[in-house]
Amino acid sequence: MLTLLSTMSAFLFNLLLKPPSPANGAAAGGVNQPFVPYNIDWIFPKLRRPSRLWHIASTGVIGLVGFFSKIVIVWLNKARVHNIQVLENALENRPKDIPLLTVSNHHSCFDDPGMWGLLTLRLLKLRNVCNKNVIRWSMAAHDICFTNKLHSMFFMYGKCIPVVRGGGVYQPAIDLCIEKLKLGHWVHVFPEGKVNMTKEDLRFKWGVGRIVYETPILPIIIPIWHIGMETVLPNEPPYYLRTGKKLTYNFGEPIDLNSLMESLRKDPVSEEQARKLITDRIQEEMMKLKEETERLHHDYLKS
User: Fold this and answer.
1) Global pTM?
2) Residue 171: exposed, middle, or buried by beta-carbon count in 10 A (0-12, 13-18, 19+)?
3) Which of 19, 66, 122, 275 keeps 20 to 30 A from 130, CA to CA?
């Protein structure tokens, strides 16, 4: 068992957890032109129209990573979870055509998939852990996860969509997220747009506003705030997974944007303004959840 875990750890670290080398790509690509170290154009057609091979490989990758994350988050660390039934209800009981959008803070490179390792134990049945139709779609940084063909295939099979940071709201990754929501799927977004190593209150990126605004059926939007993930996989060297850390997860009630969306339909504004209004509202609710989670985590640390 220890040999298996060690082998999985080394494999997944190289594919999934190893932080990028210092970016000299910014200079190569220029200040205003995001540097793309590897051509990712071929990935989007495969994610848009998955083949039978993709379905088989995706089931394997999702099962492997889900099992590994479960070991790390649930067995090797101490996670306290609040209101997980909110997500449970959305996953199990929402109508088939109603999309689900989850948003969370981003404090560690292991937030996703580590965050869902908890769900594999507490929420999803074994058949769903390996079910690509249940697990979220999630955007992943092109310059970290999609730097060569091997990495690209691994993350593609893990239902990750390559997003070019600095590429703006009109890029293929955002388009594909909207398409997946139109199909009633679950999409997860880190609206801070990067790993927030300083934990400052960053302005949320407007991509999440565009996703909500352009999805025909308003998604169920569930905010999630978590604390402690950067202690499991630190953002500074040495980069290796830690154990015995206390983690707090807090799942908020769905964010009600019905009134806002109705007002945007009655009194149309520019697309840019609509994106801003939606994003600001999501950030407002997330900041409330942050304060609540910090209190819960403080109490957890004292217990």
Assistant:
1) 0.89
2) middle
3) 19
What do you get for the CA distance between the two ends of the chain, in Å?
32
Digit-by-digit pLDDT tens for the chain (303 residues) are 444 444 444 445 555 555 554 443 333 334 466 777 789 999 999 999 999 999 999 989 998 998 899 899 999 999 999 999 999 899 989 999 999 999 999 999 999 999 988 775 455 555 555 566 788 999 999 999 999 999 999 999 999 999 999 999 999 999 999 999 999 999 999 999 999 999 999 999 999 999 999 999 999 999 999 999 999 999 999 999 999 999 999 999 999 999 999 999 899 899 999 999 999 999 999 999 999 999 999 999 998
* Closest by Cα among 134, 148, 83, 88 to 289: 83
**Which SS3 state, helix, strand or coil, does residue 174 take?**
helix
For 17, the 3-state DSSP assignment is helix
* Helix 149-157 with 52-70: angle, nearest 10 deg: 80
Q: What angle do CA 296, 128, 85 make, to 5 degrees?
A: 30
- The burial class, CB within 10 Å (0-12 / 13-18 / 19+), for 259 is exposed
Helix 207-214 to helix 271-302 angle (10° resolution) is 110
Extract the runs of DSSP E, i.e. beta strands, from 22-77.
none
User: Which amino acid does the sequence have at 146?
Assistant: F
